Amino acid sequence: ILCLVSVAAALEFKYHHTEELEEYLKGVHAAHPSLTHLHSIGRSVEGRDLWVLVLGRFPTHHKIGIPEFKYVANMHGDETVGREILLHLIDFLVTSYGRDPVITRLLNNTRIHIMPTMNPDGFEATKVPDCYYTRGRYNRNGEDLNRNFPDAFENNSANIQPETRAVMDWIKNETFVLSANLHGGALVASYTFDNGNPVTGSLKGYSRSPDDDVFIHLAKTYSSNHASMYKGTGCDNRQTFPEGITNGYSWYQLEGGMQDYNYVWGQCFEITLELSCCKYPPADQLEKFWRDNKVALIEYIKQVHLGVKGQVTDKNGNPIPNAIVEAKGRPHVCPYRTNEQGEYFLLLLPGTYVINATVPGFKSMLKTVEIADNTGNFSALKQDFSFSEVSDQIRSRVASCPKTPLYQELTRASAAVKPTLHVLVLMTIMLVMFK
């Protein structure tokens, strides 16, 4: 045990290959068994475990009212800074718990999942560190994992990889509310949508989600707390990012990205953090990268407590899963639904909103809420819904949204309406002229 404790305590600023990474994570868990839970969500093509360390007061399971947060790094195997700073984030969290009141409250009220590497095969394949492209970007099958998810706008022909499938199942099995995936090659916080069509504003060079205001806030939260990202200086003279943020589509169009998948199908708001101009910088720069990102990493986690949360129950107080709960005026193309405990979490900025809860086959319930900024209190506003007409024999069992290009359907529906409107207008004009 003493040996494991020393391993957990001696985290150096260097690159940790697979065995060292595993040894460190196992050492942390052994040293902090009541605060952490270590598990593998799957295996890479070459059979390496995809390790996730969970931290919190209840690390082994979801607790009602406590939101789930995740960080994922090293999705591109040659983009390495995120992989290492997440190890130092783990170290900071476990050593600060019980000593720092802010970190203690954060861990008592948040379940934090950290995956240091989603592409361990790619990392190991990068034999010579390089600031630019290397073949380690891809997984062992030569697939770009950030082009490998189902896409909401067009059919993605890529074969789903084991690493991608593991993350999709992970998202399905947890109630993730907020997330970020850590990359390299630029210095910017990029947000949904990465892909788009005329319905989301692609003709104007910007793909806007229904929660665009929240995404801008999330991206600015990270960039403004970063040592230099907020300055908006690009990695060369040709590219700048005002306030250090960008809409993904405005930067460049991307099909099959993980952040759009999280938002559309996972009910999880995710942004992409580009943390270094150099993809695989020298190890002696890692300490500075940690200092530059430390505050931003913590402040971003706090945003999981934005908005409103609650439970939807029947007349006997039993939870109703798959009830639709959304803020009026911002419906999602794949409606956000309650989990098996009847819980919902909606990230919303401070303001007045009407929350609409719907159990299919019954009258919707509307409640007006006044949302304050509760991130400092580590708890979103609580608003429950009780359907007195629903008994535990009548439950909503609607399946999750299919993995099809949902916004493609929306475009067709939108286009189908236009001729109808034109016909109505012409008929009205003709009727007036006849009279």
Automatic annotation (TrEMBL):
Keywords of this entry: Carboxypeptidase, Glycoprotein, Hydrolase, Protease
SUPFAM superfamilies to which the protein is assigned, alphabetical: Carboxypeptidase regulatory domain-like, Zn-dependent exopeptidases
Active site: residue positions: E274
GO annotations of cellular component type: extracellular space
BP term (GO), one: protein processing
Molecular-function GO terms, alphabetical: metallocarboxypeptidase activity; zinc ion binding
Keyword Cell division: no
Gene3D superfamilies in alphabetical order: Carboxypeptidase-like, regulatory domain, Zn peptidases
Signal peptide segment: none
Domain spans labelled Peptidase M14: 14-304
PANTHER family to which the protein is assigned, alphabetical: CARBOXYPEPTIDASE M (PTHR11532:SF84), PROTEASE M14 CARBOXYPEPTIDASE (PTHR11532)
Family to which the UniProt record says this protein belongs: Belongs to the peptidase M14 family.
The protein, known as: CBPM Carboxypeptidase
UniProt organism field: Grantiella picta
Name of the gene: Cpm
